[in-house]
Automatic annotation (TrEMBL):
<feature type="binding site">
    <location>
        <position position="48"/>
    </location>
    <ligand>
        <name>ATP</name>
    </ligand>
</feature>
<dbReference type="InterPro" id="IPR030616">
    <property type="entry name" value="Aur-like"/>
</dbReference>
<feature type="active site" description="Proton acceptor">
    <location>
        <position position="141"/>
    </location>
</feature>
<comment type="similarity">
    <text>Belongs to the protein kinase superfamily. Ser/Thr protein kinase family. Aurora subfamily.</text>
</comment>
<protein>
    <recommendedName>
        <fullName>Aurora kinase</fullName>
        <ecNumber>2.7.11.1</ecNumber>
    </recommendedName>
</protein>
<dbReference type="InterPro" id="IPR000719">
    <property type="entry name" value="Prot_kinase_dom"/>
</dbReference>
<feature type="binding site">
    <location>
        <begin position="145"/>
        <end position="146"/>
    </location>
    <ligand>
        <name>ATP</name>
    </ligand>
</feature>
<feature type="binding site">
    <location>
        <position position="21"/>
    </location>
    <ligand>
        <name>ATP</name>
    </ligand>
</feature>
<dbReference type="GO" id="GO:0004674">
    <property type="term" value="F:protein serine/threonine kinase activity"/>
</dbReference>
<feature type="cross-link" description="Glycyl lysine isopeptide (Lys-Gly) (interchain with G-Cter in SUMO2)">
    <location>
        <position position="143"/>
    </location>
</feature>
<keyword id="KW-0723">Serine/threonine-protein kinase</keyword>
<keyword id="KW-0067">ATP-binding</keyword>
<dbReference type="InterPro" id="IPR011009">
    <property type="entry name" value="Kinase-like_dom_sf"/>
</dbReference>
<feature type="domain" description="Protein kinase">
    <location>
        <begin position="11"/>
        <end position="281"/>
    </location>
</feature>
<dbReference type="Pfam" id="PF00069">
    <property type="entry name" value="Pkinase"/>
</dbReference>
<keyword id="KW-0547">Nucleotide-binding</keyword>
<feature type="binding site">
    <location>
        <position position="171"/>
    </location>
    <ligand>
        <name>ATP</name>
    </ligand>
</feature>
Length: 293
């Protein structure tokens, strides 16, 4: 951040992108060209009244402190933040393709043809989480809604090609920076690790579990322990009631990776480093690059 004090006057506000629980997100252009982001950013406007209503000040402060200190190509950058009388503004990297959730829902699941894309997503996530864990940051709320996609444009002499971009972990609202074990229950039920369901102490290995859940959801279109009733989901998680439907056909190696992440004993889950070396991933994943086939 090259500038000490930001204000809304430093930005031209563009189109409305979306609305969350605490405020709105707009496309914005920084007037003074200081960022390396191509000068276009996503400006998240959070209303102080809403923070007050939900008593979420400390949550937001933690989110800001954590995200501001992370700098990885697969983690959404928080470039700066500022506030006025009524609002808090977060200057975020703009992820033009939006939520991975929407892409996943529109396709239902990523077909066999697109497994290279899934491999890239999983490798990107493993790399980004390894970076976060190295800084003692546990995300605790990895799910498709919190993963954004940017757009990469490849320009050649004769034409240009817009391709699926990189995956970016966003929303550090549930993240913690900690060396020790924690025991707060948080996150979305389908993605909760057994130790969180049981409200036991947990550590960074909860993110490895969630990566297994996501990998399954990418390939099959639904999370593995989904049920009508939350209580049934809890029970299925506790039993690790993992079933692989015959349709769509998924390779044995992909199933092997999922099975090695969805392990009840958190200390026995495949490490992020080993995920990156797993036979299914090394086929052609490129965590530093884009995710197109
Ligand atoms: P919650 O309040 O529970 O976090 P949310 O994630 O939907 O809900 P926001 O994070 O405020 O709320 O985001 C609102 C919308 O804007 C979402 O559709 C989100 O995908 C989109 N969005 C947020 N940040 C960015 C960004 N940096 N680039 C592109 N789109 C974004
Ligand atoms: Mg959000």
């Amino acid at each position: 951040m090259a500038k000490e004090e930001w204000s809304i006057a430093d930005f031209e506000i563009g189109k409305f992108i979306g609305e969350g629980k605490f405020g709105k997100v707009y496309l914005a252009r920084e007037k003074q060209v200081l960022f390396r982001s191509g000068y276009v950013v996503a400006l998240k406007v959070i209303f102080k009244a809403k923070l007050e209503k939900y008593r979420s000040h400390s949550h937001l402060r933690r989110e800001i402190e954590i995200q501001h200190n992370l700098n990885h190509s697969n983690v959404l950058r928080l470039f700066a933040w500022f506030h006025d009388e009524t609002r808090v503004f977060l200057v975020l990297e703009y992820a033009a393709r939006g939520e991975l959730y929407k892409v996943l829902k529109s396709l239902h699941h990523f077909s066999e043809k697109r497994t290279a894309t899934v491999r890239n997503y999983v490798a990107s996530l493993a790399g980004a989480l390894a970076y976060c864990h190295g800084k003692h940051v546990i995300h605790r709320d990895i799910k498709p809604e919190n993963l954004l996609l940017d757009i990469e444009v490849h320009i050649s002499l004769f034409n240009y090609l817009i391709v699926e971009g990189r995956l970016k972990i966003a929303d550090f609202g549930w993240a913690v920076q900690s060396n020790s074990k924690r025991n707060t229950m948080c996150g979305t039920i389908d993605y909760l690790a057994p130790e969180m369901v049981e409200k036991k102490e947990h550590d960074h290995a909860v993110d490895n579990w969630t990566l297994g859940i996501l990998c399954y959801e990418f390939l099959y279109g639904v999370p593995p322990f989904e049920a009508e009733d939350e209580y049934v989901t809890f029970r299925r998680i506790m039993k690790v009631d993992l079933k692989f439907p015959s349709e769509p056909h998924i390779s044995a190696e992909a199933k092997d990776l999922i099975s090695k992440l969805l392990v009840k004993d958190s200390s026995k889950r495949l490490s992020l480093h080993k995920i990156l070396m797993h036979p299914w991933i090394v086929q052609n994943a490129d965590p530093s690059g884009s995710c197109f086939e």
